[in-house]
Structures are given as structure tokens and as C-alpha cells.
Amino acid sequence: MLDALAGRGDAVTTTIVRDLRLPRVLAAALVGGALAASGALLQGLLRNPLADPYVTGASAGGALGAVGALALAGAAAPTLVPVAAFAGALAAVALVWRIARLGGPTTILTVLLGGIVLTSFAGAIVTLIIVASDRLSLRLRALLDVLVGGVAVRDPGELAAAAAIVAIGLAGALALAPRVDAYAFGEETAATLGVDTERTTLAVLVVTALLTGAAVALAGLVAFVGLVVPHAVRGLLGARHRPLIGASFLAGAAVLVLADLGARIALAPAELPVGVITGAVGGPFFLALLARTRRVAR
Amino acid sequence: MTVQLRGVTAGYGDRLVLHDCDLSLAAGEVVSVVGPNGAGKSTLLRVIAGLVAPRGGTASLDGTPVGALRRADLARRVAVVPQSFETLFPFTVRELVALGRTARLDLLGRSSPDDAAAVVRAMETLELTVLAERRVDQLSGGERQRVVLAMALAQETAVLLLDEPTVHLDPAHQLATIALMRRLARERGLAVLAVVHDLTLAALADRVVVLAAGRIVRDGSPLDVIDAELVREVFGPGWHVAVHAGRPLVHPDLGH
Q1: Structural contact between residues B136 and B88, judged by C-beta atoms closer than 8 angstroms
Q2: A273, A143 Cβ separation under 8 angstroms
Q3: Are A291 and A59 in contact (CB under 8 A)?
Q4: What is the end-to-end Cα distance of chain A in Å, rounded?
Q5: I need a surface site. Which of A92, A145, A246, B196 has the fewest CB within 10 A?
């Protein structure tokens, strides 16, 4: 297999490894890394270990953008999907941030409620798009991918574009990290510590949307990676966001590559969407986390 | 550094909280702010910290309007000890105190040896050195209060604002906090403004400012300001004001 990777094996194996498997592994790594890094950043901004792109509705916003682009744009769709996913994710994160700020001390609850509202709203629109448009029959499979989460690389250009977006997003996240640390006691204290909170908040939302949009464009809705991975890494490495974001990116990449492998072999030859794996494993973990956080908050 | 408020009116949305407030705060001075709940004490601090812009009048630091300073420049001049010090993340004491240096990080977010030294000094002042590597969620309420105080001291500003710094502390730590404020003013020339609910503790300041319904109704030495008439007017009946060692002593009068 290593020979095939280096281009020295027999032609069939080389094609399978280099053209099918490798792009998919790279895509899975990008998706997991991007979701975990943006989860770490969002948690810092919202001061909430339960926030992530999925539960805050950012992924749903991204999916709405992606489905909308697939449905409406026709042939131009492949290039439009990442952009539309970014726009949808940005709108969703900005909305959740507004809701969280209204919440005052009950931030955790309001963020989760805002995420639920956003997710079901976006879901309703997505369903509407599917039902209303008869042009969609051909792309049903692609739409399904966006909804339930499956790592799919439609062409190498898409992978390269997503990799570039994730690289920019990750660099931005690492640059913002020390200022996000200053949110430890809330936005107002961050301001008195010298952080321009309006600009920093906007920058965090844009970076989160870049990372989430790229992930949604490649793999659709993948639950809980953005939530569970930063949480586990924080327990090991501590709370400072620069090491946290870097390590979360690597751990998230590893987790999603494994999850994608599991999705491919669990019911072989049939293939599960990777979102099923992360959802099934991450859901119970999330509940346990919720219970523990409630105890701590008392 | 001198803080100067002239005719400041401020509020949130349609609601005005402060009306026409004049106040000055000089280097080396400890001033306490007292008043009933909702009188506008926190808003007064937030105007000086640049968190709330005055609707009328001016707030200035050495003659420069607070609103004209960038956040990072303001954070090198004015430190605020927050009222809430809860964080759900497992920061260590040293990491939280180091947040006081945020305004001095370079473009890449790196700190300098000066920053590390300031963090060490602040932790020494608050007797946190032995707790430096401890996670904040393993500390008591009083210890956490000292952590946010150290964070503000690490900013090494000329002005220190405190919003009810003694509210979570036992009597020994309340007294230690007031003593620390006085020491910082004497030894380092800090201008200290603290919202304090306990009138007897408030009277340990150099000056007492009384806020009622958004207006400054008294401003002067503790003995001049805190008397029986004022306490009845502002806080209602049921209090007795005595004088002990040159300072007013306020205690409940249940026989009233």
C-alpha cells in the first residue's frame, strides 16, 4: 500500500489508494480538524464548554446554504457550495451570538435553545427546498450527503479549495487565541483587559464560519466532533486557547479519519454516513457532559 | 493620573441611570462609592472604564476623554476588578493573572519577560505564589477573588476600579482587601475607586461618595459624609451611627 501511495505499485492499487482513498482520508482529516478547531474557538467566545458548530446551529446554517446552492445553481454548484455553506454558517453563528448576548448569566441555556431553534428552522427550509423543487431528483444523493454527513470528494479542486479555506481559518483561530483567553470572565472583562471586543467577536465569527463552511461542504452535517474533541483536549492540556486549538485540530482530524474508516467498514459493502458514527458515539457523551456541567454550575 | 467626571449623564437604552455627576479621583487616593441597589454605582465605574459612553458631560483621564482612547491604551491606564469571577474553563492561577497583560502582547500574541515579571509580582502581592499552578476550579471563593484582583494588578495601571470587591469574602479577607487598597494607594500612588456596600468598611477610605437615584448626593471625608441624617435619608431608618477612632461606625439599631 505504501508502494501504491508512492506510485510504485500495480496500476489498480495505485489508482484506488491515490485517487479514491487518499483524498477521502485527507478530506476526513480536514473536516474533523476544522470542526474541532472551530468548536474550541466558539466555546472560548461563548464561555461555554457545550458550544460547537453543530449545537449552535452553524452547521445547519452551512447545510442550508449548501443545499440551497445545490438546488438553485445547477451546473455552477460545485464551486458555489463552499461559499454558500460559509455564508449560511456565518449567518447562523452571528444570530446565535446575538441570542447569547441577550441571555446574560443564562448563556448556556440560551445558546443551546438558539441552536435548537436555528437547526429546526434551517431543517424546515431544507425540507421545503427538497419537496418544492422537481429539479432536485438527480441530486438527491448529494443533498442526502449534506444532510446526514458523508465524506465525499467530488473533485480534487474542491479538496484543494477546502484545504486552503481550512488553512486560513486555522491560522486565524491561532492568531485570535490569546484574545479569546481574555473572555474567561466575560466580554466586558475582556474589554477592560484591552481587547477590542467588537472586532474580535466579528473575527471569531468569520473564522468559525470559514472552518464550519469548509467542513459542511466536504462532509455535510457531522455532529459532536466540534464539541467532544476540544472538551477532551482541554481536560488534558488546560484551557489556554492557542495550544487547545492546535491540539484540537490534530485530534479532530484523527478522530474523523477513524470514524470515516468505521463508517466504511461497519456495514460493508454498504457504507454508513460518517455523521451516523459521530452522532451515535457523541450523543451519549454530550449528555454525560451536560449532566456534569450542570453539577459544576451549581 | 487623575480621573475627572464633569456633568456626566449616562444610561442604557431609554433608561438614564446617572444624572449630572461630578467626581474627581487623584493619584494616591482611595475613594469608596456607597448607595442603595440601583443607585448607579456600577454604571459610574463603567463610565470611567469606557464601557458605557456618557450621554452628556465628559469623563477624562489626565484631560484625555476616555472615549478617545483605544481599548488597549485604556487597559494600560485603568484596571477593573470584575464583580463576577466564575469561569467554566480549567485555567491555572498563573494563566488568569497573565490575562492582565493582554493589552501588552505583541502582534503574534506573545508575552515578554516584563509580562512574566509583572505576573509574578501581582501573585506575590496577593499571596498567590504557592497557588500559581493550581486550577482555578479547585480554589475557594476568597482565593478566586484574590486571583481577579491579581489579574487587575498585573495590568500595572495608575487607576484601579473595584465593584464590590469584598462581597464574597469573610471578615478577615474583607479587611485585608481594604488594607491592600490603602497600601497600593500609599506605596504605588494608585488612584483607587471601590464600590462598597458595608458602610463601616467604606469609611476606611480617604473619601466617601454617596450615590442615590443616579445623583452624587455627598462627597467628602468619611466623618463628614456618613452621619445619622445621611444614613436615614439614603438607606432608611434602623441604623445607628457612632464614631470610633475618628471614623464613623454604622450598626443596626433594632430597638428603633
Answers
A1: no
A2: no
A3: no
A4: 54
A5: A246
Q: How confident is the model at residue A5 (pLDDT cuts 50, 70, 90)?
A: low
Cell numbers given for A41: 474557538
Give pLDDT, residue A254.
Answer: 96
Which grid coordinates belong to A19? 485517487
Q: Which three three-digit cell numbers place residue A185?
A: 470572565
Q: Cβ separation of B75 and A48 shorter than 8 Å?
A: no
Query: Using CA atoms, how far apart are residues A52 and A46, in angstroms rounded to an integer?
Result: 10
CA distance B98 to chain A (A): 9
Q: Of how many residues is chain A composed?
A: 298
Position A113, amino acid? L
Q: Assess A125–B contact: CB distance below 8 Å, yes or no.
A: no
Which residues face B194 on adjacent strands?
B32, B162
Q: What is the rounded CA–CA span in Å between residue A123 and residue B152?
A: 46
Taking CB atoms and an 8 Å cut-off, how many pairs form between chains A and B? 90
What percentage of chain A carries pLDDT values higher than 70?
83
Max CA distance (Å), chain A: 64
ipTM above 0.95, yes or no: no
Confidence of residue A149 (pLDDT cuts 50, 70, 90): low
Contacts of B145 (CB under 8 A, 6+ apart): B85, B165, B168, B169, B173, B177
**Positions in chain B whose pLDDT score sits under 50:** none
List helix spans (H) across chain B: 41-48, 71-75, 93-98, 113-125, 141-154, 171-188, 199-202, 222-225, 228-235
Assess contact for A148 and A276: CB atoms under 8 A: yes
Scan for cell 501504491, then name that residue.
A4
Q: How many residues does chain B have?
A: 256
Of A165, A252, A250, residue with least CA distance to A210: A165
What's the confidence (pLDDT) of residue A98?
78
| Beta-sheet pairing, B56-61 with B247-252 | unpaired
Q: How far apart, in whole angstroms, are the C-alpha atoms of residue A25 and residue A275?
A: 15
Cell of A39: 468548536
Q: Do A49 and B88 touch (CB under 8 A)?
A: yes
Q: Where are the beta strands (DSSP E) in chain A?
A: none
pLDDT value at residue B78? 97
Residue pointed to by grid coordinates 475582556: A190
Q: How many CB atoms lie within 10 A of CB B39?
A: 23
- Name the amino acid, one letter, at B173: H
Query: Cα–Cα–Cα angle for A127, A129, A130, nearest 5°?
Result: 65
